[in-house]
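During data preparation, a discrete fold description was generated, and the record follows.
___
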Amino acid sequence: MMKITLFALAALAVACAQDATPTDAEPEASAAPTAPAAPAAAAAAPAAPAAPAAPAGPQSVVTILKQAQDVELDKYSFEFETSDGTSRQETGEYKNDTEQQGLVIKGSYKYVAPDGSKISVTYIADKDGYQPTEEKAEGDA
């Protein structure tokens, strides 16, 4: 079966190569230079989507206030905090005991929602899946 498959692939490759090489029966290109024709795929392609409109309000620059990471063989941790109130912390550790085997990830993140409320989520992800706990506090942005 393998020999038949290889033979079929080789025959297909030879047939494709013969179609790509010009023969004596094909007319030669004229000596005058011509512009290349547009590819058919480009002509049939839809127009690119329009870029989203720029926000109407003033733009503020968000800076990173704090950033750290530590990666080891069986565990990692990282954290960051930005000037707009966004922050995230996460630790991951490979557990190899009878109760909890596999990667255990614990973390949290905070941000200010567009309506000005402060969102805080704490989570754990382990053999039981992703388990978030969300807190939403109304407040000034």
User: Anything to note?
Assistant: The longest helix spans residues 2-20. Residues 64-137 form one domain. Confidence is low (pLDDT under 50) at residues 1-12.
